[in-house]
Amino acid sequence: MKIIILNKPYGVLSQFRKDEAHMTMSDFVDDPTLRLAGRLDMDSEGLVFLTDHGGLNQFITNPANKKYKTYLVQVDGDISEEALEQLREGVELKDGMTLPAKVVKVSEPELLWERNPPVRYRANIPTSWIEISICEGRNRQVRRMTSSVGFPTLRLIRTQIGSIDLIQLGLKPGETVEIEPLLYSDFKDIPAEQPYRSRSYVKKPGGTGGKPMQKKKPEGEKKKSGTKRIWQMEEGEKPRRKTNGTTRPNSKNRGRRAR
């Protein structure tokens, strides 16, 4: 199992296919065997996993595994203790109640890099920083959580997944490092290698994710079907129409006027 850690810069898409308007993962990593595990939105920064292990993404994002993801978040306004307590208890979003989060208010981090472009500055409105850890993986969850308690997110940096700490690794934006999974307790109970699953498949409660990706058949080779078509059947194999005995016999003149 190979695991590469990337410090994703602001404005980079969490995908490998090229994009005309934005940079993507392929601008920083050139390895066709790797896939993304635990994506970040384009306007978020920080730690992402790149791996050749098919089951790692489900392992990280499934709340049942309690793999906490930690973020440093700059919010609009001086966040109150009441708002922090709401986040700790869980907040109601459009897609349901969130699980309780681990949240503390922190000073502005000194070790962080400058963002390009920088967060907008408004002299009459203060900003504050929190450190929040969640074990869910909903779309833009942290941003929606802080907004729901009245303090919209201005900047979001993922610093940890489990015990993998971006700050300790000392990675600057755009830098990568390969880690040895056996040195981290997070990977001792990782599931066996699995095929990557399609994102279009709807996950079922208690399921393992999407259907495995199917291999493409060689060009020119048609898919074989185990069911005969009607024109392939012998006369005795063709299905018979079932009636209740009241069906009228076929007549060419039925329903037609005599000429």
From TrEMBL:
Domain of life according to the entry: Bacteria
Gene Ontology terms describing biological process: pseudouridine synthesis; rRNA processing
Keyword entries, A-Z: Isomerase
Stretch list, region Disordered: 195-259
Enzyme Commission number(s): 5.4.99.-
Classification via InterPro entries: PsdUridine_s_RsuA/RluB/E/F_cat, PsdUridine_synth_cat_dom_sf, PsdUridine_synth_RsuA/RluA, PsdUridine_synth_RsuA/RluB/E/F, PsdUridine_synth_RsuA/RluB_CS, RsuA_PseudoU_synthase, TruA/RsuA/RluB/E/F_N
Pseudouridine synthase RsuA/RluA-like domain location: 3-147
The keyword Isomerase is assigned to this record: yes
PROSITE patterns (UniProt xref): PSI_RSU
Pfam families: PseudoU_synth_2
GO-annotated molecular function: catalytic activity, acting on RNA; pseudouridine synthase activity; RNA binding
Family: Belongs to the pseudouridine synthase RsuA family.
PANTHER family in the cross-refs: PSEUDOURIDINE SYNTHASE FAMILY PROTEIN-RELATED (PTHR47683), RNA-BINDING S4 DOMAIN-CONTAINING PROTEIN (PTHR47683:SF2)
Protein name as annotated: Pseudouridine synthase
